[in-house]
Design brief:
- The protein is of the alpha/beta class.
- The protein has 13 helices and 13 strands.
- β9, α8 and β10 form a beta-alpha-beta unit.
- α1 crosses α13, α4 packs antiparallel against α5 and α10 packs across α12.
- It is globular, with a radius of gyration of 22 Å.
Length: 392
């Protein structure tokens, strides 16, 4: 089986999404699927080259970071051109796989045309809800006009949570349409298990590593720190970039927390390892409910588990049982985080010096991309078998 993973990389750093795509393709190849990444980049995209995967990369000035609305339209047009050209070259035993594409009238028309290959789309969110949260009203309109065409005229749906999968299948107008839920994973061997940082009760160090958006809910944590009156000092280190950072910085300023909330920007390699090694508890998403969702399959939680750092979370994650001892669950609402409860969680979970290795072992058995892609391979093979039977 041949698979083209159609993706557009934009950005100055290697993102979690890019790492995911590369890990997916690498593991599909290991499982015997001839998978290739097709990527369009701008000349101003200085991300490191894709390593250890078969790839087709087109770099063009027209795909540089958009400076205005017309640049965005131009970039979508280039995307649609490439999408159409690839479909026309693929045969009946080949699959085009892509993440949620930005809907457009032209893409809808392309998908309605006869083709030989199968097209499978992976969904990480319920787009209209996220677009409303981000006030991305143009994308909301495009999804209203053309989003269901993508759901309807593609051949398979992969969702990262059951909630997302059910929504996308229902919007396709054909709920029995081939679909599967495969939660996000991690290349476990790509990160180091952290050096255990003993919690002595003198200071609690919290860590969030993310491209920070409103649904991460860090404002809940900052408001919790503002009302905390406990005897143990608690600090929060935020590592990463994101649209929500200006608001969080203002909030920490307003609450006079600049000596307890620190913003470090993007860190990689040894610099990132340092934060994991010196922190006690990590912070998962505390505001997924703002998207109107009850489940998450966030990439950073997989890294937390693979590195062996317990964390707090405010929603369900289907890859972890409710009684998973290394997650402190809080209510999915707008209340400030109860810091006293977080301190008590840290005290209990850190009593076991072997907790980092236990979390690492769980990640290897349940979260590694080798496990996730085995499920995807079976799904793709079923699609191919159905296609063969229909041709017969």
């Amino acid at each position: 089986m041949n698979l083209i993973y159609f993706s557009i990389f934009f950005g100055k750093e290697v993102s979690g999404v890019q790492k995911k795509i590369l890990a997916q393709v690498k593991n599909l190849n290991i499982l015997g699927i001839n998978a290739v990444v097709f990527s369009i980049t701008g000349t101003d995209d200085n991300s490191p080259p894709l390593q250890n995967v078969n790839k087709i990369i087109i770099t063009t000035l027209e795909c540089n970071s958009p400076k205005n609305f017309f640049d965005k339209i131009k970039r979508v047009h280039i995307r649609d051109d490439a999408f159409k050209n690839i479909i026309e070259t693929l045969k009946s035993d080949e699959i085009l796989y892509t993440r949620i594409p930005t809907p457009s009238g032209r893409m809808a028309k392309i998908l309605k045309n006869p083709r030989r290959c199968k097209i499978v789309v992976e969904y990480q969110t319920i787009e209209p809800r996220e677009n409303r949260l981000n006030r991305n009203y143009l994308s909301l309109i495009y999804d209203f006009l053309y989003g269901d065409d993508i759901r309807t005229y593609t051949d398979g749906i992969v969702g990262v949570t059951d909630e997302i999968t059910r929504y996308e299948a229902a919007c396709s107008g054909n709920p029995p349409k081939p679909h599967i839920t495969i939660g996000n994973g991690i290349d476990v061997d790509s990160v180091m298990v952290r050096t255990y940082s003993r919690f002595t009760g003198k200071e609690l160090r919290l860590l969030c590593v993310a491209n920070v958006n409103r649904w991460h809910g860090l404002d809940r944590l900052i408001r919790g720190l503002a009302t905390y009156r406990g005897s143990i000092p608690v600090t929060l280190n935020i590592v990463g970039d994101g649209a929500e950072l200006p608001h969080l910085k203002k909030l920490s300023n307003d609450f006079n927390l600049t000596d307890r909330v620190f913003f470090h920007g993007i860190k990689t390699g040894n610099d990132l390892d340092y934060f994991f090694n010196t922190s006690h508890i990590a912070v998962g998403s505390l505001g997924i409910h703002r998207k109107g969702l009850t489940q998450t399959s966030e990439l950073k939680a997989r890294e937390y588990c693979a590195r062996g750092i317990p964390y707090i979370l405010a929603c369900a994650d289907p890859d972890f049982p409710e009684d998973f001892p290394f997650i402190h669950r809080i209510l999915p609402d707008e209340s400030p985080v109860n810091i006293e409860e977080v301190v008590e969680f840290a005290r209990n979970v850190c009593e076991d010096p072997g907790h980092p290795q236990k979390m690492r072992e769980y990640a290897g058995k349940h979260l590694d991309w080798s496990v996730k892609m085995t499920a995807l391979k079976s799904f793709l093979e079923t699609l191919e078998e159905e296609s063969t039977q229909n041709r017969a």
